[in-house]
Amino acid sequence: MAVRSGQQFVDGLRRAPREVWAAGRPIVFVRHEFETHGWDFKDVVSGEPDVLVTKETNSAFYGTPDLDGWLRERGLGTIALCGISTDHCVETTARMGANLGYDVLFALDATHTFDRTGPDGTVMTADELARATATSLHEEFATIVSTDELVG
């Protein structure tokens, strides 16, 4: 499957947590696990998060520990998102976060997705899916930002 913005994603994912930690802001890692296995973090994801959420669904808000509770206990009202995959897990977390009342920053260049075949057999490229996600979230569920804007 074709991959969207591979190196750009890697650079953003390497840079964002490091600079967020340097600014003294908390970092949440989210790992998607299935009954048979969990997904390992990419080599570019390093360091110890303030909390590790393990989930079995598309949204980080349906994981353990309870992300919403963890954020509210700390008085955090804004979340910034990056990761895999742009149009599934990251988008679902953005929508749920907005519905729960968080200000959501969606670092589009630090997300990653794949080409997908629709029900009519037409393939949407990863770049088209990323653009569709950004368009769908824009001004309703999230503020679409770049890694530079996020850490600036």
Task: Give a short summary of the structure.
The chain is of the alpha/beta class.
Tell me about this structure.
The protein has 152 residues and is an alpha/beta fold. It has helices at residues 6-22, 67-73, 86-99, 126-137, 147-151, and strands at residues 28-32, 51-55, 63-64, 78-84, 103-112, 116-117, 123-124, 143-145. The chain has a 3-stranded mixed beta sheet with strand order 1-2-3, with no helix packed on it. Strands 4-5-8 form a 3-stranded parallel beta sheet. Strands 6-7 form a two-stranded antiparallel sheet. Helix 3 packs parallel to helix 4. It is globular and about 45 Å long. The model has no long low-confidence stretch (mean pLDDT 86).
| Strand content range | 15-25%
CATH superfamily of the domain at 6-25 and 76-151: Isochorismatase-like
Q: Radius of gyration, rounded? A: 15 Å
* CATH topology-level fold name of the domain at 6-25 and 76-151: Rossmann fold
Order of helices and strands: HEEEHEHEEEHEH
CATH class of the domain at 6-25 and 76-151: Alpha Beta
In the sheet with the most strands, the strands line up as: 1-2-3
Number of helices: 5
Assigned CATH architecture of the domain at 6-25 and 76-151:
3-Layer(aba) Sandwich
Structural class: alpha/beta
Count of DSSP E strands? 8
